[in-house]
TrEMBL record:
Keywords: Bacterial flagellum, Cell projection, Cilium, Flagellum, Secreted. Residues 506-548 form the Flagellar basal-body/hook protein C-terminal domain. GO terms for molecular function: structural molecule activity. Signal peptide: none annotated. It comes from Methylophilus medardicus. Pfam families: Flg_bb_rod, Flg_bbr_C, flgK_1st_1, FlgK_D1. One of its GO terms (cellular component) is bacterial-type flagellum hook. It is found in: Bacterial flagellum; Secreted. GO terms for biological process: bacterial-type flagellum assembly. Residues 92-326 form the Flagellar hook-associated protein FlgK helical domain. This is Flagellar hook-associated protein 1. Belongs to the flagella basal body rod proteins family.
Amino acid sequence: MSNVLSIGKSALNAAQIGIATVGHNISNASTPGYNRQVVVQAAAQAQNFGYGYVGQGTNVVGIQRVFNDTLSKQVINATATSNASGAYYSNISQVNGVLSDSTAGLNPVITSFFSAVSAAAANPSDTATRQTLISSAQSMVNRFNAVNNQLDQMRESINTQITSSVDAINSYSTQIATLNDTITKAVNSTGNTPNDLMDQRDQLVAKLSEQIKTTVIKQDDGSYNVFAGTGMPLVVGTQQYSLYTRASDTDPTRVEVAYGNPASPKILSVDTVSGGTLGGVLQFRSETLDSVQNQVGQLAMTLASQFNAQQTQGYDLNGTLGTNLFSIGGPTAISSAYNTDPTKTASASILDPSLLTNSDYTVKYNSGMYTITRVNDKSIMWQGTALPATIDGMEVNVNTSSPTEGDSYLIKPTQYAAGKLSMAFTDVDKLALAGSATTGPNDNENGLKLAALQTGANVRVAGSNTNRTYTQAFAQMVSAVGTKTNELSITSKADAMALENATSAMQSESGVNLDEEATDLLRYQQAYQAAGKMMQIASQLFEVLLQMGQ
């Protein structure tokens, strides 16, 4: 009789655990990252009574979470891809909005400026027309400054996004390492897996993949080794490895991602830090923002330089040789933070604006030789033992005859040009529209040459050996950004859909279905009632036996 009671007790216990597990599932139906759990039962060891084996009830051998590793990896990969394309698209959309605005963009002010030049050339002695030209020039300068400021603000925003992502990555990886330790100890001490802690860890991995491409390798002891990007270890067992932010070696305003020795972490390349929000913003900055700001600067520098060059060929209303209308900032040369002697600096000056490109250049001294590389296409433009050197319309030099091995410099010919552009004078009499000092105020020879600059092929554009007009160069830049924006719009939507599908597949297997849980709850309730009834009957039979013995 005691055997029947024991069997009933095991059934009662199993049903009670089942109800508790279902209740746990229901209560966590809305918990992010929660995977439903199921009770695993097995028949208790049967007992041989000679006439056969009599069952001894049931044992609860474990509570497992429903988790599919393959689907989980798909979700992690889709999350990193979707966040990367989403971050890129979000940022490039802002650039596209700045450039393509039909009223606030650069194209309207450039067109208006040359219309004013043509009007002044048609009536060179008219002070009002000259004033319109000065006003149009000022408007164009203001627009170049404003566009550059907007791009600078985006650059600062990128720095903030990078810092925020790195902080989040370090926080998530630290928590994963801590959970690795807790989970490993729990498994070793009890032999059972702490399902809720494992859910929390997988949720952290999912959050990590929002920031950067994440790869997880399960270990035999239940811990995760987590790698980021192209394979940087972030978590190995209970050890966490941090990412860092630090200023670029050649641009203190540029925040970069670094990894390695905390005392001197090495800056990572964009290709190394791929996927997630962090990978997306880094890719946007290197592929689009740098290029666009350089092209805007190239357009400002080329237009202003060529207008100044022609302006200084003519004569103003006073018969004086013309002077520069625009003040233009020169190229910026930055020494690497690792150069041993800060007094050794590089310099660059523009010789021919029509040959300028929108690329930056690196100057490195190794093995007794300088190498100048164009960053955009990584072409080696010049090698030699001594500078100066002339490349792409500018002269590059270093102020020392005793360079140190490993010295390097970054030359930015155009990035800051639009922001530095300003008016050199606003006196209308100084506009040099005449071709001679003695022909009088109605001479418009030089004015016509100034107006002709609008249709001249004056700007070198990337990927072509043929120069373009100012408006053509700007239109090509706007078109390229617009095309990339449209491409990313489609890509980001496709990636978001892929993530949604992967998440749905994961949820359909691991998520909590309240209808199913309600069914399971009813099933366990019936099992509990049946087990209770069985124990009641066993108790009544036991009492009958006792009465028979009195």
